[in-house]
What we know:
Blueprint: E1 2-6, E2 9-11, E3 18-23, H1 40-52, E4 55-60, H2 70-80, E5 83-85, E6 87-89, H3 98-104, H4 108-117, E7 128-132, H5 140-156, E8 160-163, H6 170-180, E9 188-190, H7 199-208, E10 211-215, H8 222-225, H9 228-237, E11 244-247, H10 257-260, H11 266-280, H12 282-297, E12 299-300
Parallel strand pairs: 3-4, 4-5, 6-7, 7-8, 8-9, 9-10, 10-11
Antiparallel strand pairs: 1-2, 1-12
Bound molecules: zinc ion (ZN).
Zinc ion is lined by residues 22, 24, 61, 249, 251.
Amino acid sequence: MRAARTVLGDVPAEDLGICDAHDHLFFRSARLPGQELDDVPAAIDEARAFHALGGRTVVQWTPYGLGRRADALAEVSRAGDVHVIAATGLHQAAHYEPEVLREVRGRLDALFVTELTEGMHGGGRAGMIKVAGGFHGLDGHARSVLGAAARAHQATGTLIGVHHELGTASLDVLDLLCGRHGVPPERVILGHLNRFPDPRVHAEAGEAGAFLAFDGPSRANHATDWRLFDLLAALVEAGHADRLLLGGDTTTAAARASTGGGPGMPYLLRVMRPRIVRDLGEDVAEKIFVANPARAFAVDWRC
Ligand SMILES: [Zn+2]
């Protein structure tokens, strides 16, 4: 059955509604000490604030081993009244303690497939694989994780979402996943493209058939946040409105609206969506927030 796999079960794509296509309810990284998102009531507050503005689905791109709180996602989904799609997969090596990577090395394919089909430790099933490239290239860790993700895609049919370091190396990722490993481009979501605002690269990735995901704003990417609308407009103009996705990518407590006074998840619907309606039209907004996520996150599950 073609369905989006949420932490509470599979749902038809048309039930996803307005979607935050890339965000984090929980996240912990060795790179961001003291900035953990690990507070269940705060995650519920943020989900409720998103729901109050019409949001219905949050896709959490926190992969294996980074505090994604599989045990709490069902509670957040119920209490926040949003569908939650969780991720398996692996981030860049720098985000992990070395022993975590040692423990999963050599069994990534099986780990990803198990989390997608049987469930994550302590919680429901993952609905996507999150992986990561490097800054303007792919190191050995990235190549091995992307290879495992491609094989897990072949086994399950799932989609692969990619963190691009400062938005770079998206075409290298497409070469590897689609060119070398045969993943259909429409099963790949290229993330953080706004952080490397090169419209020619974005157009090329759109022509290849991948989904193009933008996010923010954030303090870390403030230098490129202001390019977002020009980038979206250029892609719409080039005929790629059907490929665009948007997320909040809230990775720290200070970035949250409900508890941190930041833009958080509500910003997407409070500020971004009305601006997209005004600048690019209601039908483009409908594609970005509803129709494209429904196509991106629904999967013909093979198991
Ligand atoms: Zn993210």
